[in-house]
Amino acid sequence: MNDEHITWQLREAAEAHQPDRARILARVERGMAGPPARHRTRSGLRSWPKAALAGLATAGILATGGLAVAGIVRTPPPDTATTAPVAPATTTTTAPEPTPADPPSAAAPAPAPAATSPAGPRPSPTASNRTQNGPLWSEGSIDPHSTIYWGQNNLTLKTSQPLTSLTVELRVAQTGDVRDAGNWRTLPPDDFNVTVQESGGALVYRWVLKPGKTVPAGQHEFAGQYNHATGARGAAGDSYRVEAKSADGSATVQGGFTPAR
Q1: Which residues pair with 166 in a beta bridge?
Q2: Residue 113 lies in a domain
Q3: What per-residue confidence (pLDDT) applies to 232?
Q4: What residue spans carry the region label Disordered (predicted)?
Q5: pTM, whole model, 2 decimals?
Q6: Cα–Cα distances in angstroms (integers) from residue 227 to residues 140, 150, 204, in the given order
Q7: What is residue 38's predicted lDDT score, i.e. its pLDDT?
């Protein structure tokens, strides 16, 4: 068998061969995936005709397979492109920043109402007011516990020397239904003669030191209590007068009554 005959047979075999495209494609994919495994070949010489025939057959198979692979590669793959899902656009809405409200305008504070005392306005000083004289010092005031039905006029008397004679007169102006409700003093009650009477449009309280009695130096209190018509009572018409004697002679003080504090 010569070379031409072998070549002719190989050509016929190649033309008649129907390649297994699936197996060829699988082998190509395996070849691309990694290097083929090496197989050990038994040592020994093969006869030239068999070796040549096997080589030509292998060349024909590879040539035919190459054509088949080329056909497969040239065939455009079906349109299997998958469109990646597009995430829906997220719209972020920024809330408008709140506008601070205008601060409320500070209202001008209302003027405080004038304080009204049941005892009425403070009496204005007059030429007749003389609260200090010689060893005497005095002050008249309306008791803070006075109410719209009842009142009390307080007289504070200070003396820097003992008094051998003392007359205290306290006048409560008749402003409406003024009536006696009592009186008191800090000095011993048995040392004084006390009278209460209406005179000259006023309720008059009088304390007279008994003969032989002495008022010691210091501070002493006298008070006249009275009921009156319902409502705030003014004390502008109220007054007091004190006449006393000491080792230095006679002294007189007088004045009005200030509202309760």
Answers
A1: 244
A2: no
A3: 94
A4: 78-140
A5: 0.53
A6: 19, 4, 14
A7: 52
Query: Dihedral of CA 9/14/20/26: which sign?
Result: positive
| Tokens representing residue 104 in the block | 């409320």
Give the separation between CA 36 and CA 53, rounded to whole angstroms: 24
Q: How far is it, in rounded angstroms, from Cα 105 to Cα 90?
A: 44
Count CB-CB contacts under 10 A for residue 21: 13
CATH code of 158's domain: 2.60.40.1510
Domain that holds residue 206: 132-255
**pLDDT below 50 — which residues of the chain?**
36-37, 39-127
Return the structure tokens found at 61.
């198979």
199 within domain boundaries: yes
| Residues in Cβ contact with 140 at an 8 Å cutoff, skipping those fewer than 6 apart | 153, 154, 155, 156, 238, 239, 240, 255, 256, 257, 258
